[in-house]
Amino acid sequence: MMHIREEDLRCAVHDYFKCKNYSIFDEHKLFARKIDIVAKRRNEIITIELKMRAWERAIQQAYLNQRVSNYSYIALPENILNNSKSRLFDEAFKNGIGIISVNGSAKQIMGAKKSNQIQSCLRSNFIKSLSSEEE
Amino acid sequence: MDFKRFYRYDFASTRILIDQVTKYYGIAISAQILSYTPTSVVQLLHETKKPFFIDPMTFVFARDIDNICRNNKIRKSYQKLIEDYGEPFTNCASGTGLTPSQFKKGDGEFDLSLINKVCRNLLSYQTKKFGVAADFTKYNKLLKKGISSRGISPSFLVAPYFYANQYGDDYYKLSLTFAQESKKIKGSFDLYPVICISKEILWNEPQIVNLVKDYVDFDGYMIWIDSLDEETIIPQQLIGLKSLIEKLSAYRKPIYFMYGGFLCDLLSKFGLSGYSSGICYGEKRSVDAVGGGAGNRYYIPFVHLKISEDLANAFFARSNKNKSLMCTCPICSKIHNYLPPSLDSQTYSGRFFSEMDFLDYRRHFLNVKYEEMTDIETMTNAQINLKLDSDIQKLIDIDRFPGQPSELDSRHLRLWKILFS
Questions:
Q1: CA-to-CA distance for B140 and B136, rounded, in angstroms?
Q2: Do B350 and A33 make contact, defined as CB atoms within 8 angstroms?
Q3: Residues 40..79 of A with a Cβ closer than 8 Å to B: which?
Q4: Which of A59, A119, A125 lies at the smallest CB-CB distance from B347?
């Protein structure tokens, strides 16, 4: 297993969503916090939190992202996922959060449920700010 | 004696200090702000007609000077303050902080004539800075608006002070000497020393007793326990704090905390006369704080703490039970009044927080703090105990969410109850 850095995680996740024709936004703000990656394709928004190891924090942030995104994911190095206890998967599943594993390239190992927490006001402001960044 | 709450002036809060003028007692002005923007301060004091005091901020010059630098240069506001204060503060411009030895003679004793001279300069600054408000152009503009600095004077003077890492150290002795010399020249003004010291003192009852003896015979007191966090305070510190206030209050003089939150409101029942803080920030402060803004924070009344707007939104959105705990202060009610109550908690919370702007978060804070203070004044200790029990129960009953902040835990409320046990 090669040593992986956060930038490697980011690049792999970028490639994964770019191949599916999503536009990618890094470090986009939601309130005072920054979402690691936002992938947008037409009206669909996917948010991804990258973490090298602290998966609990990733789940917490991914949960909050469900207010603006249709699908919310966490992305972790494959070796961290392999060594994790089932609690990570339980927590992600319980909260409808998807999991992406990265080892050189990214692959989805658990799909996210469609968010039932979307706040239309917050989401529409969020989309506006994405659009202004796109311009 | 009514409990007095001072809010610290900063440029962003000017509008709120003016339009919520009935919701607080007075204004605390940091000296570097007065030096940097004297006309704004005069204008604010003229418009609000509130009691105020000036925090001389001398401690920063005896800490790491990098704390008051930006891009390796002393910030302009502090440069102005150094110019106003003169020697020996001008020595700090080279990047070296003041030390007690600079105030000592060759024999190791404090140089009282030097200290007296510095006290004269700094107390004169607190009484006369308003008379030389900014440059003449700006001042003429104020005069045209009918605003004059005449008649503006602080409620009390604050003695120069430094941070003491422990009771009896050189900085402690220096601050005490500054306070005693200031007392000699205070004239008709009341003079308050600032007891600025580390948390260690709270563990040491004999030191508390000695400190109180050292500070006998002043007109009032300001206390600043470095980095004291009301949320994470531990029982021994709480007991020490109560003891310090009770012992000082035997002098029957006002006692204020330089920074504080709801715990200070509770301590009013044990002799605390008031406290200052920023509007929705600055309930605690480290002597080595370097400033910098945080995002919007929302004060949750039954928690008596604030959390980020992000997490407040997530909390109230979690369920209808959580939504039912939303604040009903005049500022929040304005938004509630045009949101259909039948909306689900997600939508309701989303719309509510999208309507809150920078000023609303702060106006809400001011209103809730005012209500809290008014309630506590009229409550007995037993009633406060019951109120804390009821707040704890609300927190036990909330619906939790991933990433819920520690502020929504009831630990701090359980701890504060120790005061009343």
A1: 6
A2: no
A3: 57, 59-61, 63-64, 67
A4: A119
Closest of B256, B392, B400 to residue B314, by C-alpha: B400
Beta bridge partners of A87: none
| Closest CA–CA distance from residue A63 to any residue of chain B (Å) | 7
Question: Which residues share a beta bridge with B225?
Answer: B197
- Tell me which DSSP letter residue B365 carries: H
In the predicted structure, residue B132 carries a pLDDT above the cut 80: no
Cβ separation A119–B350 shorter than 8 A: yes
Q: B4-277: what fold?
A: TIM Barrel (3.20.20)
Structure tokens, A95: 């909260």
Residue B406 to chain A, least CA–CA distance (Å): 13
Q: B26 - beta bridge partners?
A: B6
Of A61, A63, A67, the CB nearest to B350: A67
Which chain B residues are within 8 Å of A95, Cβ to Cβ? Answer: 402
Tokens of B403: 């990433």
Q: Two tokens at B108?
A: 């190791």
**Residue corresponding to tokens 């007109």:** B219
Q: Which of B311, B346, B402 sits opposite A119 (nearest CB)?
A: B346
Residues of A in contact with B310 (CB under 8 A): 30-33, 64
* Segment B259-283, tens digit of pLDDT: 999 999 999 999 999 999 999 998 9
Residue with tokens 């809060």: B13
Helix crossing, B38-48 with B136-144: angle to 10°? 20
**Cβ proximity of B37 and B133 under 8 Å:** no
Tell how far CA A114 is from the center of its chain. 13
Q: What is the ipTM of this complex?
A: 0.89
Average pLDDT, rounded, for chain A: 92
Protein fold of A6-121:
Trna Endonuclease; Chain: A, domain 1 (3.40.1350)
Report how many helices (DSSP H) and strands (DSSP E) chain B contains, helices first: 17, 13
**Distance (Å, whole) CA B420 – CA B219:** 28
- Considering only CA atoms, which of A12, A14, A45, A34 is closest in space to residue A114? A45
CB–CB of B60/B78 below 8 Å?
A: yes
Domain extent listing, chain B: 4-277, 298-420
Model pTM?
0.92
For B167-196, how does the pLDDT look when each residue is reduced to its tens digit (9 = 90+)? 999 999 999 999 999 999 999 999 999 999
| Mean pLDDT on B119-138 | 79
